[in-house]
Design goal:
CATH superfamily: Hypothetical Protein Pfu-838710-001
Distance between the termini: 52 Å
CATH topology: Hypothetical Protein Pfu-838710-001
CATH class: Mainly Beta
Helix content: 10-25%
Number of domains: 1
Number of helices: 4
CATH architecture: Beta Barrel
Strand content: 35-45%
Order of helices and strands: HEEEEEHEEEEHH
Number of strands: 9
Shape: globular
Radius of gyration: 17 Å
Length: about 180
């Protein structure tokens, strides 16, 4: 039975509402020579983490010359609800300037392909300078990964590596033990 275009759009929208992602620290910078794209990101949160009272993060992100509003559930782990909507760049710049809670998270995102998978590697700037995190989006929570040689340790379950946490407790304020994890 054929699916019409409206059903296809509905099915795509359902899939877009759930993000399945894992985060990793890196052993070294050997991944950099494999990167085929680099984009500057600025992002700010319109809400904070209020001792578990908050159910979602609301973020404004400028990615190169594009901007979006992003709402994510505040679940810890591989899978979370995520909704993303394009917005006007000037509006995003104004919202970041006037409505941000915590510091603005600045980073360069590099794209690296490995064994048919796309890795997004975030090299943080500003208050988070020195932190580099690799992320990979998956089709399912049990998808098998081929790990590149530059992957060191998974940090998906550690809240301090989430961008909303970095906006409120930047890497520069972490203890030496936290930074060397």
């Amino acid at each position: 039975m054929a699916i019409d275009i409206y059903q296809q759009v509905f099915l795509i929208r359902i899939n877009m509402a759930r993000e399945i992602e894992r985060k990793f620290l890196l052993k070294n910078s050997s991944w950099k020579k494999l990167a085929y794209k680099k984009t500057h990101f600025s992002q700010a949160y319109l809400n904070g983490i209020n001792n578990g009272a908050c159910k979602s993060s609301i973020r404004i992100r400028i990615e190169g010359d594009k901007a979006n509003l992003n709402i994510k559930s505040l679940e810890i782990g591989i899978s979370r609800d995520e909704y993303e909507y394009s917005i006007n760049l000037a509006d995003a710049q104004q919202m970041i300037k006037t409505l941000a809670v915590g510091s603005v998270v600045e980073k360069h995102r590099y794209l690296v392909e490995n064994a048919g998978s796309l890795w997004e590697i975030d090299e943080f700037l500003g208050d988070n300078n020195g932190l580099v995190v690799a992320e990979i989006e998956l089709k399912s929570v049990d998808e098998k990964l081929v790990f590149p040689s530059w992957i060191r340790r998974e940090v998906t379950e550690l809240v301090r590596y989430y961008n909303i946490s970095l906006s409120q407790n930047p890497y520069s304020q972490w203890t030496e033990d936290e930074q060397s994890f």
